[in-house]
Amino acid sequence: MSDKINMYGLSLEELEEQMEKLGQKKFRAKQLYSWLYRFNVDSFDDMTDISKSFREVLKERYTLTLPKIYTKQMSDDGTIKLLLELEDGHKVETVLMHYFYGDSVCVSSEVGCNMGCKFCASGLLKKVRGLDASEMMGQVLIINQLLRPLKRKVTHVVVMGTGEPFDNYDNVMSFIKAVNSQFGLDIGARHITVSTAGVVPGILKYGKEGLQINLAISLHAPLDEVRNKLMPINQAYPLDQVMAAVDQYFADSNRQVTFEYIMIKDLNDTDECLKALIDLIKPRHGFVNLIPYNEVMENDFRRSSNNRVHKFHDALLKAGIKSTIRKEFGSDIDAACGQLRARYEHK
Questions:
Q1: Nearest to 305 by CA among 269, 260, 259, 261
Q2: In this structure, what are the phi and psi dihedrals at residue 84, rounded to the nearest 5 degrees?
Q3: d(C-alpha 96, C-alpha 69), whole Å
Q4: Is 337 a catalytic residue?
Q5: Which fold is adopted by the domain 68-346?
Q6: Catalytic residue among 106, 113, 117, 337
Q7: Distance (Å, rounded) from C-alpha 19 to C-alpha 26?
Q8: Lower Cβ count inside 10 Å, N or C end of the chain?
């Protein structure tokens, strides 16, 4: 791997600092950002309004490196799932989902994951390392390359792929700031979501960032005894601590939180769990996203019936809690997060 700095991994503020260290004015960072993200240039030689001598300095110190597409799967519904190869040979997944309101990319934040959620294919392979910001940005830029001939581009970003974002906090923050910057990809804050399994220190820190970017909590159970069976992190940060952090986050940011809830047959879809879910969410400014489970062959969990999912949805709405049932994507390919990489690694 190169010891040069990958410029795709720098927030605008970080790039301004780099330029000042090189004796340049701060505006040079915005100029570079414009070439990278507005004109989609991938070579310093093509940055024609920058002097040739300074372009040589940039080439000595920086690189513009993107992941390579190792495997591509395309679904009948238009979903594209990529297995991307990084400079060190490790592989990560990223997924494009097309909605009526735009194109959303699900970004991985780590190679592997240490959260060990029992229902999740990502946890089949333990964390190797966190991704740096350039490797996360690379996932979005590769998708944009695929969309460009269609005259489309990424409009929404969710950091919900493999890995726990708050286990790689600083790199994730640099990435989302570059995505959100008006001089970068200029994706609106309300169109960016970071999802956590419930890392309490990360939630508290995130609430003080002053960002309008969305927060999602992977809840998946409203009772500790059920959540312990699904998510080992609940033993480190049980529900009372997670909810206290959510309350503090709301106080600091005044932003509504989304609670992700995968529906698993005979485990978290019981009447007891439904009542507990309503009791947990109703006092808070929360939104519940019910998710039909994508079954993984390595475990015995099964998806709840459609009737059960709709019973939860109707009961939440009746209780005055905003709720949706997530649209399913890629059911004819390796739909569940981590499945494609796990299948590759097992081979």
A1: 269
A2: -105, 140
A3: 14
A4: yes
A5: TIM Barrel (3.20.20)
A6: 337
A7: 6
A8: C
Per the structure block, which two tokens stand in for 47? 């940055």
Q: Which of the 8 DSSP states describes residue 82? A: E
Which position has the token pair 């240490």? 114
As a whole number of angstroms, the distance between CA 215 and CA 194 comes to 5
Catalytic residue among 16, 93, 164, 260: 93
Choose between 32 and 327: higher pLDDT: 32
Q: What is the pLDDT of residues 87-128, one digit of tens each?
A: 999 999 999 999 989 999 999 999 999 999 988 876 677 899
- CB atoms near residue 125 (< 10 Å): 18
Give the Cα separation of 67 and 186 in Å (integer): 21
As a dihedral over the C-alpha atoms of residue 250, residue 255, residue 261, residue 262, rounded to 10 degrees, the angle is -130
Q: Is 113 part of the annotated catalytic residue set?
A: no
Structure tokens belonging to residue 98: 């097309």
Is the domain spanning 5-63 CATH 1.20.1300.10? The answer is no
Q: Give residue-wise pLDDT tens across range 151-165.
A: 999 999 999 999 999
pTM of the model: 0.92
Confidence of residue 273 (pLDDT cuts 50, 70, 90): very high
